[in-house]
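Intended use. Records like the one below are meant for learning the mapping from a protein sequence to its folded structure. Do not use them to infer anything beyond what is encoded.
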Amino acid sequence: MATTDPHSTDAGDGLRMIRLDAIDVVEAFNPRDDRDAEEFGQLVATVREYGVLQPVLVAPRAGSG
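Structure written out for the chain above:
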């Protein structure tokens, strides 16, 4: 799939790699209302050490085509 989006590149199989600075986080959309500070700290540590081990799903910005 070819893309003309300057913030992403075709990764094959219908997947695209998107630059992190092209992703807007909408905090109000987060389905997690509570998080244990210790468990969240462990999650942060593992992401820092190993990276994200599964794809993160994102949706196009409104009006981006």
